[in-house]
User: Fold this.
Amino acid sequence: MSEMNLLIMNQSELACFLPGRRQREVEELIAPCCVIDAEMMEPEEWAELLARHNPKVIVGGWSLPQLPDGVSWMAPRLEYLCYVPGTVRDKVSCKMIEKGLLVTNWGRSISRTVAECALLLGLSCVRRSGYWNDRMHHHGEWKDDFVTTKSLFDRRVGIHGYGAIAKELIRLLSVFTSKVTVFSDGVPKGVFDYDGVECSDSLNSLFSENDVIFEVEALTPERVGVVDEALLRSIPEGGAFVNVARGDLVESKGLLNVAKEGRLQIGLDVFNEEPLPATHGLRGCMNVMLSPHIAGPTTDRMVDAGDHAIENLKRFCRGEAVVGPITPEVYERLT
Amino acid sequence: MSEMNLLIMNQSELACFLPGRRQREVEELIAPCCVIDAEMMEPEEWAELLARHNPKVIVGGWSLPQLPDGVSWMAPRLEYLCYVPGTVRDKVSCKMIEKGLLVTNWGRSISRTVAECALLLGLSCVRRSGYWNDRMHHHGEWKDDFVTTKSLFDRRVGIHGYGAIAKELIRLLSVFTSKVTVFSDGVPKGVFDYDGVECSDSLNSLFSENDVIFEVEALTPERVGVVDEALLRSIPEGGAFVNVARGDLVESKGLLNVAKEGRLQIGLDVFNEEPLPATHGLRGCMNVMLSPHIAGPTTDRMVDAGDHAIENLKRFCRGEAVVGPITPEVYERLT
Assistant:
């Protein structure tokens, strides 16, 4: 056995996650190390590779093959899977984590780009830019005397959720003079008080007492469909609803009903069924700005996930706690 | 003669510019005062009204009729036209200003909403949200594996112009970690140094050394077409160009050529011909986000123009200098 750590990425993953000096830095941190493109690897070949190198650390991109059930006897030294992208569910089982495998992913390093997309959708909603872009491209139109546009300046903004994305969004909104209020049912009021953040008593008041609602809450089984038709209808006339979190937080039939009425501007990056079916009723509702789940890290900011992985590899090498370990509890909440 | 000042607005102008206590405040500031809806008034009736009331101050909205050439003998007391919206050219002649009439308009009070629209178009360009909204609504699409999106974080941003809109835009961009560089040929380098703002040596370097270019420069006769095809082509591949200033700053044929190539993302709120002709070649270029000259104050922020007018009326009453007087030089630059 050669006892080599593994960096499992193809060329395009290396270029996007670890550009410049970063690939070298990772190789040095986990030396001795092989860089392998395993994209086309058969399961047998992958198992054989794991057994041959018996790595202590695996750093992987999207092309990383799933860790086989028998990984703990194939590669008994394995301690840490540093998965650079997000979705680890199809790479490693919860059982391996329960048995002690340390796993991280891009964690909070992508929060600012998600918050940026939320801001974009919020601005698009209030200015109705999706509507106007469509009227100008496909209907030869220009504004008339009755055009109504709105701003984020001095608006009442409600944020459902108080994780890393919410905090980044609050930072981005700080340059507007918006009055921001937050609600997240897991968070004690003392936390909001300490952070100097205004909070609502309930999801009902968050929705009914603000003009622009951002959905950035984490999805848990209890929160499936928590944003129902009545809640959406309680947003004041002419308001906006933006979802960059998870489609299942919203009751989909209710969302469609409200979207079709046109009294709200809506911005959606996530859906309860993805890809959104080609004939879905939301398509064609021009008061709804649609994007295909692209709020996550933009191509040019994948490097933030690379830097996050490097920071965690440094911590691991120094015997320190990594940032954002995927515990079995966290694993169960991943989507 | 009754010697009454005039507040010339219709009901919808009063509601949008002077909501709440503001109308009363204006009436008190310029008492004695008549509030008149002159929208349907014939020129004779308007001239007669001016002569009858002989106002010292006229406060007006869009529905204000043009001041007749003979206003100085019809209403010899007239000192100040406080026009609440923007375009005074069709309300008052330059000659009247040269003869000493004090004129103001909404001035810089609208700058933040224009900057907000510039940010929206910039974010739309880098994320390609107009393109995706179109693909999802009209083509039943979802993203594929090769989707490329970009962010404003850590991007090189160039701003052409250094007036009130540029300064507001710099403030809005401050929450992104973008590296902002400015160029404006009228502004001495010392001003940028004093403000702590990075500046380019030339328009050429501004365009070729940044990824996202915002056009917010004032239009002067020398600047017509200053952004030509070569300059647009010098923006690095995959970059973006946003114009919320004036269409005539950009050479229109060159812009269309570059737009059609698709190597840049483009966001346009202004055009060299407005309304944009129904069959214009920019329509249908889905790398171009179009809006119909709506960057100016949003409907909900017209109240900022009202507050700006009230501030100027207070200054006028105290014998102080007003903010943003329309001098003959400023008048000639208005579009």
User: Anything to note?
Assistant: The longest strand of chain A covers residues 156-160. The radius of gyration of chain A is 23 Å.
